[in-house]
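Much of the work behind modern protein science is quiet bookkeeping, done one molecule at a time. The protein below has been through that process, and both of its lines are reproduced in full.


***
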Amino acid sequence: MGEPDDLPSAGSEFVVEREETYTHDEHGSVTVTAIWKGIEEVDTTQTANEKDTYIVRYSANEDGETVDELTDTLREFVESVDDSK
């Protein structure tokens, strides 16, 4: 059986938007800086196997420093944020 898709269910009411701020369980207040469609793998000949995996990149403030290279799949990000913003 294949891996679960990272797409939200048809009844999902939670929307992740670029430049919006969310409360992340681990990193506190985070701002989404990018959303893109990822790939499952790349082999040595640079052939990419496409997959409907959406990646969310976000920034956070840790110890007064902005960290903006944090990434999760859409599913991981949604499960880690408070959807009430």
About this structure: Residues 21-77 form one domain.
